[in-house]
Specification:
- With about 475 residues, this protein is an alpha/beta fold.
- Helix content is about 45%, strand content about 10%.
- The strands form five sheets. A four-stranded parallel beta sheet has the order 4-3-5-6, with helices on both faces. It has a three-stranded antiparallel beta sheet with strand order 10-9-12. A two-stranded antiparallel ribbon has the order 1-2.
Length: about 475
């Protein structure tokens, strides 16, 4: 934390009223630029639509009535404002909302004209041309403004001055989150102790002296200090509360108000069920059956190699924990000695996984010669296609873990058991065995669960093939 002024300072004495929000002029300037662009786009679209409608074989039949622009602009701009398209952030490039507003504006103009001046009705062709041109012009205008703003911000212009307050272990992460937005110029990063009773007045004075516009405070720093939000507001500062590492992963949160404007945050639970589940299951079954038929020579060749290389069964079966915590037998080609499970207890002290949840060691002495090859290219996983065929697994999903690993789970790890386990997943395409902390595995699994789609499954499968060919993280 930078050295703050030694003199005591009471912000309550610095002003009789709450300060005007800092950075307000810059915010309104950007809104006026956006509004001006929309006005020009809408006016140009309407005049061109009207101009084309008045062209005849003899030329232009009559002049375009400019007074028509008043209801056109009034209706359209009010709808844009009501939709929130002039708010800060991503709203200026919300082109889907722009399309919806343009369609609604055209519909309202048609109804208004139909009921109030049916004898001079606007032709449907005019409204259609106006809709197409206005959407095109507005999107182009907003795109140019957005790109210009981004270009200026990458060069350090039109950024908000911001102060970050966080514990030392969270400061680097908070800094990266804010810098990635490319909207803020970080003035300083202060420790959470700057909000302590003895330090906070000096901290507030420091923010004012530095010209800070916004303040980012980590959740751990603001906890039990929520009244500080009012103090910062009275100084004209906008306060943002950064979630901790786990809270950040809950995507799709919606903020709404209930009762007397009481804010409430809703988290929709991630779920692959219903139609989504059966779609995924149907695709798994079809591809598993096709794969087994086409790859049968490969299965046979690996089985013969294992039988020749070392004594013991061709397949290795192990109890894993699957959907809703139900145990099942996972099938693999045997890549280790017959007594591998017994030897694991002796090798626990060599476990390279930091938290001990997973058991991974390099140069595992239990692996056979053929086992080294098939593990390197993940060929030992091929029998799990039968698990997919029987509905115990999916091609893509969180990796099913042995009972020994699940017994070491923390409570929050069990969310990964709410979907079918997979042969491959985010973990496999992100380094596999090189990830030595189960919290990192959980983050990847949560991302998959909360963002599942057929397209995501296809992307993971293609990246899995690339990872297998490169032998990344496999041992």
């Amino acid at each position: 934390m930078n050295t703050l002024s030694d003199s005591t300072h009471d912000v309550r004495k610095s002003s009789k009223v709450a300060g005007l929000r800092r950075g307000l002029w810059g915010s309104w300037t950007r809104r006026l630029v956006l509004l001006s662009s929309d006005i020009v786009s809408l006016a140009s679209a309407w005049l061109l639509a009207r101009y084309f409608s008045k062209i005849t074989l003899e030329g232009i039949s009559e002049q375009v009535d400019l007074t028509e622009l008043i209801p056109v602009l009034s209706v359209s701009l009010c709808l844009f404002a009501a939709r929130g398209l002039y708010r800060e952030g991503v709203y200026r490039r919300d082109y889907i909302s722009v399309l919806k507003v343009v369609i609604l504006a055209v519909a309202l103009l048609f109804l208004t004209d139909y009921f109030y001046s049916p004898e001079q009705g606007i032709s449907q062709s005019v409204l259609l041309i106006f809709g197409l041109l206005s959407f095109s012009f507005i999107c182009v205008g907003r795109f140019v403004i957005d790109q210009g703003t981004q270009m200026l911000r990458t060069r350090g212009f039109i950024r908000y001055s911001a102060v970050v307050i966080a514990d030392s272990e969270h400061q680097e992460r908070a800094k990266k989150l804010i810098e990635n937005e490319q909207r803020y110029q970080i003035v300083d990063i202060l420790s959470a102790s700057s909000l302590d009773l003895l330090n906070r007045d000096d901290t507030f004075q420091f923010m004012q002296e530095q010209g800070a516009v916004e303040v980012f405070v980590s959740w751990d720093s603001i906890r039990n200090r929520m009244f500080l939000g009012q103090r910062l507001q009275s100084m004209g500062l906008t306060m943002h509360v950064l979630p901790d590492e786990q809270e950040e992963k809950f995507r799709g949160a919606k903020i709404w108000t209930m009762g007397d404007n009481i804010p409430c945050i809703t988290f929709t639970p991630p779920d692959i069920s219903g139609v989504d589940f059966w779609l995924k299951r149907g695709l798994d079954f079809c591809f598993a059956l096709l794969f087994i038929i086409l790859a049968s020579p490969v299965y046979l060749a690996i089985a013969i190699a294992i039988r020749i290389d070392s004594p013991g069964p061709i397949f290795y079966k192990q109890t894993r924990i699957g959907l809703h915590g139900q145990p099942f037998k996972v099938w693999k080609f045997r890549s280790m000695r017959q007594d591998a499970d017994r030897l694991q207890a002796e090798l626990e002290k060599m476990n390279q996984n930091k938290d001990g949840v997973l058991f991974k060691i390099k140069d595992d002495p239990r692996i056979t010669s053929v086992g080294q090859f098939i593990r390197r290219y993940s060929l030992d996983e091929l029998p799990q296609i039968f698990n997919v065929l029987f509905g115990e697994m999916s091609f893509v999903g969180p990796r099913p873990l042995p009972v020994r690993d699940v017994e070491k789970f923390k409570q929050r790890y069990f969310i990964r058991q709410d979907v079918l386990p997979g042969i491959t997943g985010m973990w496999q395409i992100s380094g596999r065995s090189d990830i030595d902390n189960f919290d990192d595995v959980l983050k990847l699994d949560l991302y998959y669960i909360q963002n599942w789609s057929v397209l995501l499954d296809i992307r993971i499968l293609f990246k899995t093939f690339a990872a297998v060919l490169q032998k990344s993280g496999a041992y």
